[in-house]
UniProtKB/TrEMBL annotation:
Matching PANTHER family: HTH-TYPE DNA-BINDING TRANSCRIPTIONAL ACTIVATOR EUTR, HTH-TYPE TRANSCRIPTIONAL ACTIVATOR RHAS-RELATED
Key word Transcription present: yes
Originating species: Methylophaga lonarensis MPL
Keywords: DNA-binding, Transcription, Transcription regulation
Keyword Transcription tagged: yes
InterPro entries xrefs: AraC_XylS_family_regulators, Homeodomain-like_sf, HTH_AraC
Pfam families: HTH_18
GO molecular function: DNA-binding transcription factor activity; sequence-specific DNA binding
Name recorded for this polypeptide: AraC family transcriptional regulator
Domain HTH araC/xylS-type as annotated: residue spans: 229-330
Amino acid sequence: MSFREPLYVGPVHSEPIHVVQLTSDDVLAQAEALPFWSQEYTQLDKGEFSGAVTSVSCHGVQLFRETMNRAVDEIASAPANSYVVGLPTIIEGTASWGLQPLSRDSLITLDKNTELMFRTSHLSEITATVIAADRLEAYAEKVERVDLSKLMSKVKPVETIKPELADRLCNILIGGAQHIMDINSSEQALKIWRHLEDDLLDAVMQSLMQVSENPIRNNEHRIHRHIVNRVRELTLMNQDQMLSIGDLCRALNISRRTLNHAFTRVLGITPVAYIRNVRLQRIREELQSSAFQVTTIADVAAKWGFWHMSLFSRYYRELFGECPNETLQRSRTINI
C-alpha cells in the first residue's frame, strides 16, 4: 500500500483549517472517509455497518476521531513523513494495533512511513493526532532536547500510559477539535489553533517520553499477525478457489493448531471465516464500483470461489445486513 501525500506545512496564516465530519453505513465508504490516509478495511463482524469520522487539520497537524460498530481488520498508511499518536477511547472486545494487543489504558503510535495493521473491537473509537515529522522532530529537539528518532525506537505501537497523561492528551484531542469546529470566525479559529498546537505538541512529547521507559514486551503477537497477513495474500492470489485449512498449513509450513491460534489471538475469528469475509468484501466492492458492468451476481460470486448461490447469499446478508442484489441495485441508482 502506498503512502498518501504528506500533510501540507506552510505558514499558519496562509492555510485554512480543513474540517471533515462524515457518517457511513458501508465499510468500504468508511475506509475512504479519513482525509490524507490510504486504507483497506475488511469487516469481521456480521451485521449492518455504522461508522463516523471527524477530522480537523491545519499546518501539518491532523486531529481525528473514528468510530465503528463492527470489528474491522484494517491495513492503512498515514500521510507520508508523519507520526501518529493517539488513544483508544472505546474498546469492546479484542483489539490490536500495530501487531500489539490493545487495551483502554494504552497509548497508540505509528512511526513515520510505517504501514499500520489495526484490528478494531466490536465497538470501537480511536482518537489520534497526525503530526508532520519535521514539526514534531523540531519541537522535540528545540524544546525537549530529545532526538525523536531514537526516542521512537524505544516506543512500541501500544504502550501503557499513565492515567493523568492519557486524560490530558484525550482532552486536547477531543475538546480541542470540537472547540475549533464550534468557532464561526476563521480568523479566531486560527488563533485558537496556534495555542492548541502548543498544548498538543507538549502533551504528545510528555506521553512519548513516559512510555519509552516502559519494560520491553515479547514479540508473540507479531508472529501471529504475520500468519494472518500471509493468509490474506494467499486468498487474494487464489481468488477463484477456496483454500482449505490443509492448503494453508502446507503453504505456510505450520500446524492447524498454530494457524487457528494465530487467528484467534489476532482477529478473534477462525481462518475459514476470515477468508470468506475477505472474498465477500471484494465481491461487495465490485458490485459497488462496477455496477453497470456486472452481468450477473452469480458471475461475480463465482470469480471469488462461491459456487453455491443460496449459501453465498446467506453469508453476504449475514455479514453486511443486506442481500447482494440490494447492494447492486442501490449502486446502479446512485451512479445514474
